[in-house]
């Protein structure tokens, strides 16, 4: 709002050196002022932007973007114009379905992608991000086939976090055997009721850079499994961290 005030009341040609802007309840006039007065803008966080205004960012070469309470349809439309310059995207509480495939086509250089509390996510394509290192999907419905396909086509991942998965041991085994996750360092499934010690072992075997696996209290592990894993880690002098620490002291 201060930028809007300066432009409207003080200096219509005002420009600043800001590279990051965080605005709440953004309206059209405010976003116009931000775009006009911040030629160096690289990172923006819009909390509850007014409907229909995201297109005003079409001329801005953003490297990072974070949105809260927004239209997924508007996001996809905007990415068709600015996606190539974007490296980090965090989206929270997007309204309406979001086709990840369309982000793949528009944002080929993404390094980090976070989905929180989205209405729904889908992925049906044969291509994914070629540089993506970090992926988080929390409280965002996505069907098992879509999630599996997305992960299998994104073998550059270093960090993978999904709060709830219905993968079986057979799913995990085929995923890491048929695809090379040679850079994967961290795997976090908060709730994975169908994954047993077999999935932990195959991840350890097939992912040479693996450093941490969790949240195993939400997996189908027995006390005997925990004891066995402790023994395996000690015998091979592994630095792998298994979470939570309460069951792996």
UniProtKB/TrEMBL annotation:
InterPro entries: LRR_dom_sf. This is F-box domain-containing protein. It comes from Anopheles maculatus. The lineage of its organism: Eukaryota, Metazoa, Ecdysozoa, Arthropoda, Hexapoda.
């Amino acid at each position: 709002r201060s930028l809007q005030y300066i432009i409207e009341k003080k200096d219509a040609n005002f420009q600043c050196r800001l590279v990051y802007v965080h605005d709440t309840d953004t309206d059209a006039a405010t976003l116009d002022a931000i775009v006009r007065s911040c030629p160096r803008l690289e990172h923006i966080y819009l909390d509850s932007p007014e409907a229909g205004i995201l297109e005003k960012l079409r001329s801005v070469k953003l490297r990072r973007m974070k949105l809260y309470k927004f239209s997924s349809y508007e996001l996809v439309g905007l990415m068709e114009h600015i996606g190539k310059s974007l490296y980090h995207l965090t989206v929270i509480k997007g309204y309406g379905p979001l086709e990840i495939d369309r982000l793949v086509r528009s944002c080929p250089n993404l390094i980090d992608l976070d989905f929180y509390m989205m209405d729904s996510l889908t992925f049906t394509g044969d291509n994914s991000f070629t540089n993506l290192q970090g992926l988080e999907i929390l409280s965002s419905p996505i069907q098992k086939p879509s999630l599996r396909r997305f992960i299998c086509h994104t073998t550059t991942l270093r960090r993978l976090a999904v709060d709830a998965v219905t993968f079986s041991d057979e799913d995990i085994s085929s995923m890491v055997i048929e695809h090379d996750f040679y850079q994967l360092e961290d795997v976090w499934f908060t709730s994975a009721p169908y994954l047993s010690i077999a999935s932990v072992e195959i991840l350890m075997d097939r992912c040479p850079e693996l450093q941490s696996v969790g949240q195993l209290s939400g997996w189908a592990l027995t006390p005997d499994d925990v004891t066995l894993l402790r023994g395996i880690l000690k015998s091979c002098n592994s630095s792998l961290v298994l979470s939570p620490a309460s069951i792996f002291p």
